[in-house]
Amino acid sequence: DVVMTQSPLSLPVTLGQPASISCRSSQSLVHSNGNTYLNWFQQRPGQSPRRLIYKVSNRDSGVPDRFSGSGSGTDFTLKISRVEADDVGVYFCIQGTHWPYTFGQGTKLEIK
Amino acid sequence: QVQLQQWGAGLLKPSETLSLTCAVYGGAFSGHYWSWIRQPPGKGLEWIGEISHSGSANYNPSLKSRFTISLDTSKNQFSLRLASVTAADTAVYYCARKTQRDGVDYWGQGTLVTVSS
To answer: CA nearest A37 in B: which residue?
Structure first.
């Protein structure tokens, strides 16, 4: 199975400051059709996961432009330009290129 | 807005059968893949399997085909079944939608299933 390694696992951030989460895969996530199926999710406390970014860098409808995704191949990053209180929760990546699909361990973002 | 609403028994004894159902509201049922994911306490997320709108199912090989995913297109619902549960099957179970174009998007609210004698 493809191993997804996220870092850091804990991310204390001051309000208004940027945050960055890394997700690395044990093999390339480029599908034979040319797409890279790497999505990012946010899970707020007590809620089900909400997708923020799909296929590396595409922001979902309604997601603030403070969130951005980048990367290629095996190395991907989720960035929050200015952290707000509402951003508290767990963030995780998921690869949908290789079966079975696998997840990063999750990064817990908290406010300092 | 697509919503997935799931339900099923939350407390099982060892050897009983886990049965969860997920209903899809507000979106097309056909053309997508319908998935089950679980997260044991203190552990990471694990993909159980998925079923296409035509009824073709794929399962995580690591789970040794213990699970069965089925769908009822007349009700826009899909289900998960696991016979002979053990304590190791204790987890929060999620249903989710996957599109061929963009991957996983919508999730259900999750169901905590506890296996205990």
So the answer is: B103
Cα of A9 to nearest chain B Cα, Å: 12
φ/ψ of residue A88, rounded to 5: -60, 135
Question: Is residue B110 within 8 angstroms of chain A, CB to CB?
Answer: yes
DSSP H stretches of helix in A1-55:
none
> Is A7's Cβ below 8 Å from some Cβ in B?
no
Phi then psi dihedrals of residue B12, to 5 deg: -125, 155
Answer whether B85's CB lies under 8 Å from B25's CB: no
Q: Which of A55, A58, A106 is the closest to B44 by Cβ?
A: A106
**Taking a C-beta distance cutoff of 8 angstroms, is the pair B41, B57 a contact?**
no
Query: Is B103:A39 a contact under the CB 8 Å cutoff?
Result: yes
State residue B95's pLDDT score: 98
pLDDT at B28 > cutoff 80: yes
Which conformational region is residue B64 in: left (phi greater than 0), alpha (psi within -120 to 50 degrees), or beta? left
* B104 in contact with chain A, both atoms CB, cutoff 8 A: yes
> B34-80, pLDDT tens digit by residue?
999 999 999 999 999 999 988 999 999 998 778 999 999 999 999 99
Token pair belonging to B8:
């099923």
For residue A93, name the pLDDT band (cuts at 50, 70, 90).
very high
